[in-house]
Amino acid sequence: MMAKRNFMSVAFAAVSQNEAFARVAVASFISQLDISVEELEEIKTVVSEAVTNSIIHGYDENPDGVVRISVSIDEGVVELVVEDEGKGIEDVDQAMQPLFTSKPELERSGMGFTIMENFMDSLEVATAVGKGTTVRLTKRLSFAKALQN
């Protein structure tokens, strides 16, 4: 049976310790679905990447910053939105290039957006310099795909 629309949202301080909290919160919420372990791990990884981007790049690890996550489930499609009101991304196309990082001194891999694109069905980035960034990701879960066929 397909899950009817359901949603949750949470906001937390832009500190790196909260990345694990974000993973667990999202995983707990979506585990109500008939989701594979692989899909759950992929979504948790995507949450980590998006939240880490907000904390490190959006806020420069300023704990006064706030990261917001909302998740909705509608007929087997998970939509994940990660928002910050940080400094924004000057060049989204450049930021989305594999291996590009604006913080090489932190030994960042520059693969965050690439990982998000590979694990999800869609990725949209809305950003304004000085105002923040919103990353919207969607994934149709395998059980929902099977029910369509």
UniProtKB/TrEMBL annotation:
InterPro entries given in the database record: Anti-sigma-factor_SerPK, Anti-sigma_F, HATPase_C_sf, HATPase_dom
All residue ranges annotated as the Histidine kinase/HSP90-like ATPase domain in the record: 38-143
Alphabetically ordered keywords of this record: ATP-binding, Kinase, Nucleotide-binding, Serine/threonine-protein kinase, Sporulation, Transferase
TM stretches of this protein: none
Enzyme class (EC, first level): transferase
GO function terms (MF aspect): ATP binding; protein serine kinase activity; protein serine/threonine kinase activity; sigma factor antagonist activity
Source organism, top-level taxon: Bacteria
Known catalytic reactions: L-seryl-[protein] + ATP = O-phospho-L-seryl-[protein] + ADP + H(+); L-threonyl-[protein] + ATP = O-phospho-L-threonyl-[protein] + ADP + H(+)
HAMAP family referenced in this protein's UniProt entry, alphabetically: Anti_sigma_F
Similarity comment text for this entry: Belongs to the anti-sigma-factor family.
Protein name according to UniProt: Anti-sigma F factor
Protein species of origin: Brevibacillus borstelensis AK1
Taxonomic placement: Bacteria, Bacillati, Bacillota, Bacilli, Bacillales
